[in-house]
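SAMPLE LOG
Freezer: B-3
Tube label: C17
Construct: single chain, 333 aa
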Amino acid sequence: MKKIINDPERFVDEFVEGILLAHPDLVKTPGDDLRVLVRADAPVHGKVGIVTGGGSGHLPLFKGYVGKGLCSGVAIGNVFSSPSSDQVLQATKAVDGGAGVLYLYGNYGGDVFNFDLAVDLADLEGIKTTTVVGRDDVASQPNERKLDRRGVAGIFFAFKAAGAAAERGDSLAQVAAIAEDVVEHTATIGVGLAPTIFPTTGKPSFELPDGEMEIGIGIHGEPGTRRAPLETADEIADHLTSALIKDLGLGKGSRVAVLVNGMGATPLEELYLLYRKTHYLLTELGIEIGKKYVGEFATSLEMAGASISFLEVDDDRLELLRAPAQSPFFQEG
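STRUCTURE (predicted):
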């Protein structure tokens, strides 16, 4: 696999430097560590800060959602690796406006461990924090064990809603409750067609024979629920949509926000094929689509494949999704 890189060991620092050079009006680093980014106007005094973080290789997740109406800061790890607790603390201190800081990140062991350490470190600095963990991947655990699910593309909905709540001046407890509410009503499932290639080794993250697909694949190449011969776009959309409807218990009269997400190497045209069938399936069941997103929101370098996320919405959740937001990779309003 050919890649446009320099020194593989400098891959993360160099692309973060590129983001900073391209978007100085939106993001900055509060010190010398390129693994910590915050919104350009941080800290925003009197408002709740939101810090996320995780491994690199998933742009625009996680670092792409730092900006007005979204997250306040991010701690950046190596490719598919957790950031350190010290980097989380640096981001926390840089975004603390005196109203406390929400930690909002995906449910992965290394991230949980280091963010939990940062909670203690922030407490020593006199900064109040609370934590909400994204856990939307329905293929990773059954519904009765949903607290153990992986966090994948659906965490975008939590970033958007919590960020809007913080922007309007909600308290830390209120922002955290909104994030948890959105996480609780979000479900995602994906399909993989080809692996990502690690920039440091040049090796694929998993093996998948030609002509096959993997339903339920994780964003690091974690095994899904089954492998099968590659199906048509409509058949794939039917499988993914049916799993989400069942998991969330949706039916006639339900309302959802829909996110069709590319994994990094899937053409936008193919994502719209998936959205097309998803739209028809929901409409036929009497499920209203209140908001829709199609594009790359949580990738895995150049993995081929896609995921679909549903957030069950009410008027309050829709209002938060529709609120203005701006980051280097996302804009609303």
